[in-house]
Amino acid sequence: MRQSFVPVLTVLTFLVVLWYAAAVWLNAPWAHDRATRSGEVLTTQTLIADTWSQDKPKLPAPHQVATEIWQTTVEKNITSKRSLVYHAWVTLSATLLGFVLGTGLGVLLAIGIVYNRVMDMSVMPWVIASQTIPILAIAPMIIVVLNAVGVSGLLPKAMISMYLSFFPVVVGMVKGLRSPDAMQLDQMRTWHASAAQSFWKLRLPASMPYLFTSLKIGMAASLVGAIVGELPTGAVAGLGARLLAGSYYGQTIQIWSALLVAAALAAALVGIIGIVQRVTLKRMGMS
Amino acid sequence: MAFGNSADVMASKTDGATPIGGRDAATEAVISARNLDLTFQTNDGPIHALKDVNLDINKGEFVSFIGPSGCGKTTFLRVMADLEQPTGGTVTVNGVSPQEARRSRAYGYVFQAAGLYPWRTIGGNIRLPLEIMGISKAEQAERVARVLELVELAGFEKKFPWQLSGGMQQRASIARALSFDADILLMDEPFGALDEIVRDHLNEQLLKLWARTRKTVAFVTHSIPEAVYLSTKIVVMSPRPGRITDVIDSPLPHDRPLEIRETPEFLEVAHRVREGLRAGHADV
Fold first, then answer.
1. Which of A31, A190, A248, B277 would be B109's cystine partner, CB 3.0–4.6 Å?
2. Which parts of chain A have pLDDT scores under 50?
3. In sequence order, what are the residues at sequence separation of 6 or more whose Cβ sits closer than 8 angstroms to the Cβ of residue B189?
4. Which CDD domains does this one have (chain B) (predicted)?
């Protein structure tokens, strides 16, 4: 941890400097336009100050985004519709439900593929085909169809999360459940172990490292799914709704703060899985 | 010893359908193969892994199978263990078919690699077959302690496999094969991946263990000194097709210090094994 502190900080500083520079470059035309219209003369200093403090900049400066995030998280009541915490929670709940459903579906499909020859031959192409469809195209369909049958709110979004997150779990778990070699399977046979015993005592524990890798990818995909699922719901609530509303009204600062909160959320979720992974594998003597 | 092609009486009984016929043979022969054939169908055509193999292994014997790779020695062992199905002839283990023997957990099988589960401790690994066989917790603990002591690994129960050397891992794997008290021990080049010094040590230990437990051992190896040092009977095999070319009853005494390998008797047996291997190679 300590060794990575300095490099991480260096990269971060570099990115922030780059961001400020880009803000000046992208927002300068607007500042010039306005100055020309009002007949002001811009010095370099006033130009930079202007580009970093516009209301609807092309690229908001980091401190503008930071202020926005501060105001919409700490300074707002979390039950308020203007609170990013509220919106993040809406997205998080759909993400987590979709993740749990996706992981469950993924594990079940993987077990089917490993144990059933017919499924082995038939399911995988469909699983792969399902991921070649752009999620942006299918998400509105899922929302509309589910709405038509009376399902609305959390579940449709969770379904889209599930749709994205089951894929890495299937692929990883098929590989994981097949990771025991022929000798280990022969060994089970010499003990006359049942299929269930081979599964619980050999295949499942052997697949754990694969599972955790898949879960990390699945969690990130699940968050993307939840955000995408919020876009066609008419911008009611959630980080996706904030993004959509921001783009309707040109609120770039709002867009960027929603983006950053989404990124932080993803990092936290993947980080939590990483910790569970480390603890589990250490307990299993596999790290 | 009943080695040869004249097996009319034995050949009449098939895959355990008439267990009564096998019973009197079982009184002396624990493992018995008659006219055994096994052909693998591969993309490059059929491979004759075993051809007309006849052999009896008696109770308490230590039988080594030696031969170049491709001679079918491992295949033969796997047939005894019901891991391969013969395409002709019969095998009986304890008087029944290999499948029934496997189901009644009649043998412990030691593979070339220790194959310990990295997520289980040494104790946990040895407990694994006991858990599968539904043995009570108390007895599991008692048996784990006993077999760990047998292979001189007492005190390592709580260690994980990666904390042990290769030789110790293989001893743990032998302990695991011993844990459920099968009378037969099938060993497929268990020390093949270990260095000479560790191997000598393990050979010595294995002989002691065999003397203490009086198990019937079938042991596959490609080392002549190992085969001669360990065995009461050495089966020499040769490839294409895999077959038995010689069966040597060892004249060496039961009590064998490592130094016995310098004696003329030992060298004479080793010489005969080498001749057998060479002869098998010549008529290919």
1. A190
2. none
3. B74, B112, B220, B221, B222
4. ABC_NrtD_SsuB_transporters
